[in-house]
């Protein structure tokens, strides 16, 4: 058994070295041998002498059917490609029209937004104008109330002044009578 183990190791090494080595080109004798062998076989791998006559006709019928199926598949795939291309074109046209509609809607929305911002600016200008007018009005009302109070004070002072003049005139008369 010990003699068997090293052999398997050598065989695996040999197999490994064969699989790891790059493939070499076949020698001219190998080519001739392969050519001879292939010429004796048809595509099914059987020699021409091995086949009975019924198998050959069934084989050719099968090949014909497979060729027809392959042709149908190729035709259907080319038709499918044409159909898919047409569908893709239609889909692209739909998407282009949707994109155009979206762009138009975007332009409308932007114009509406611009109008709204202009209105807002006008309203804010108006509101600032209104606020300044309110402030001015309040300032004027305050000045008017202050002036009214000053007028009241002035009328009181005039009346006080008139009373003092009257008293002063009466005192002057009394002093003049006393001095006579």
UniProtKB/TrEMBL annotation:
<dbReference type="GO" id="GO:0019208">
    <property type="term" value="F:phosphatase regulator activity"/>
</dbReference>
<dbReference type="GO" id="GO:0005737">
    <property type="term" value="C:cytoplasm"/>
</dbReference>
<keyword id="KW-0040">ANK repeat</keyword>
<keyword id="KW-0677">Repeat</keyword>
<dbReference type="GO" id="GO:0019901">
    <property type="term" value="F:protein kinase binding"/>
</dbReference>
<dbReference type="GO" id="GO:0004857">
    <property type="term" value="F:enzyme inhibitor activity"/>
</dbReference>
<dbReference type="InterPro" id="IPR031775">
    <property type="entry name" value="PRKG1_interact"/>
</dbReference>
<dbReference type="InterPro" id="IPR051226">
    <property type="entry name" value="PP1_Regulatory_Subunit"/>
</dbReference>
<feature type="compositionally biased region" description="Basic and acidic residues">
    <location>
        <begin position="31"/>
        <end position="40"/>
    </location>
</feature>
<keyword id="KW-0217">Developmental protein</keyword>
<feature type="compositionally biased region" description="Basic and acidic residues">
    <location>
        <begin position="131"/>
        <end position="145"/>
    </location>
</feature>
<feature type="domain" description="cGMP-dependent protein kinase interacting">
    <location>
        <begin position="80"/>
        <end position="180"/>
    </location>
</feature>
<dbReference type="Pfam" id="PF15898">
    <property type="entry name" value="PRKG1_interact"/>
</dbReference>
<protein>
    <recommendedName>
        <fullName>cGMP-dependent protein kinase interacting domain-containing protein</fullName>
    </recommendedName>
</protein>
<feature type="region of interest" description="Disordered">
    <location>
        <begin position="118"/>
        <end position="145"/>
    </location>
</feature>
<feature type="region of interest" description="Disordered">
    <location>
        <begin position="1"/>
        <end position="82"/>
    </location>
</feature>
<feature type="compositionally biased region" description="Basic and acidic residues">
    <location>
        <begin position="72"/>
        <end position="82"/>
    </location>
</feature>
């Amino acid at each position: 058994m010990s003699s068997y183990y090293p052999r398997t190791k050598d065989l695996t090494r040999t197999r490994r070295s064969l699989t790891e080595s790059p493939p070499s080109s076949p020698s001219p004798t190998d080519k001739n041998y392969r050519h001879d062998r292939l010429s004796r076989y048809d595509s099914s791998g059987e020699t021409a002498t091995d086949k009975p006559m019924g198998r050959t006709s069934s084989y050719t019928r099968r090949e014909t059917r497979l060729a027809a199926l392959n042709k149908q598949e190729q035709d259907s795939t080319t038709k499918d490609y044409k159909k898919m291309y047409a569908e893709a074109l239609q889909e692209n046209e739909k998407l282009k029209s949707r994109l155009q509609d979206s762009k138009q809607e975007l332009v409308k929305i932007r114009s509406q937004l611009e109008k709204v911002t202009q209105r807002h600016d006008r309203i804010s200008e108006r509101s600032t104008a209104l606020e300044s007018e309110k402030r001015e009005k309040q300032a004027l009302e305050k000045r008017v109330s202050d002036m009214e109070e000053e007028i009241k004070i002035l009328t009181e002072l005039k009346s006080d002044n008139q009373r003092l003049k009257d008293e002063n005139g009466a005192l002057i008369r009394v002093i003049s009578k006393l001095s006579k």
